[in-house]
Amino acid sequence: MTQLLVIREYIKNFYTKYEEFIVPLLKFVLGLILFLTINGRMGYMAKIDHVAIALVAALLCSFLPLGVMVFLSAMFLLLHTYALSAECVVVLLLAYIIVLVIYLRFAPKAHLLLLLTPLLFVWKIPYAAPLAAGLFGTPGAAAAVAGGVVVYYVLAYITGNAQAFGGGESDTMLQRFSDMGTGVIENKEMLIVVTAFAITAILVYAIRRMSINYSRAIAVLVGTLADIVILLIGDLIYDANFSLAGVILGSIVCALIALVMQFFQFNLDYARTEKVQFEDDEYYYYVKAVPKMAVAVPEKRVKRITTQRANQNVRHSHGKGKTRK
Question: What is this structure's pTM?
């Protein structure tokens, strides 16, 4: 445990020292992964389906706020969708408008969650999104996670039916638009996941704010169980065809990931908890103080021996030898 704390302190000190370089680098890496993933999974517009375009966009995002990355990723998706079908653009644009209205109302600063949630679905660890939102965000962060879920499922529906949407005739345009809108709105799996993730994020936030020992670890465990239960109940009611093993195993893996993130971000020493009481003219206060767990990072000291000092030591040793004789 001590060794892990030392590693954590090394990482924190390194980040603090080089933050002005690390933050742009991380934003560049995230943007590059995001744009390459969009091009790789869609790729309908050949003009922007190039590594060079993704590199330029990621480089631009590295020096600008995360909101710019949200905007550019939306532009990439809309351009690819436009190359596929005009109806797809309209449906995707309507989905974006709904997401942005809710997102800007409840979580205007949770850009990272909005970007990462669809990526976590691609990486097969989507259940980490609501846990991270509850641990590190506010109740409004649930809106950002829900928005990311909607965007992912709309895009999944478009890519899954790309051949049908891209090959229709102009006289069936209205019908295709109607079919697509109905397919997105009646997607039971999407509705269940949105509900489960939103409830999980709010539940995790509520528990980790409680004044109990190990509240954050308990929040992760309870949130994981709640997420599994809601998904499985929704599957039983609406026959959404969730994989039972996938939901359980994926949730366990994501819970471990959330606990690791929590360890590096916020770790308390509950063995040294103090309860303090004091008062002023108007109130009496009960304060519970829990110190953060930290260790002193050992400093490496390099002892330099100059040539002059080494010669002096040698002469001194020879002098001692002659005295003994």
Answer: 0.83
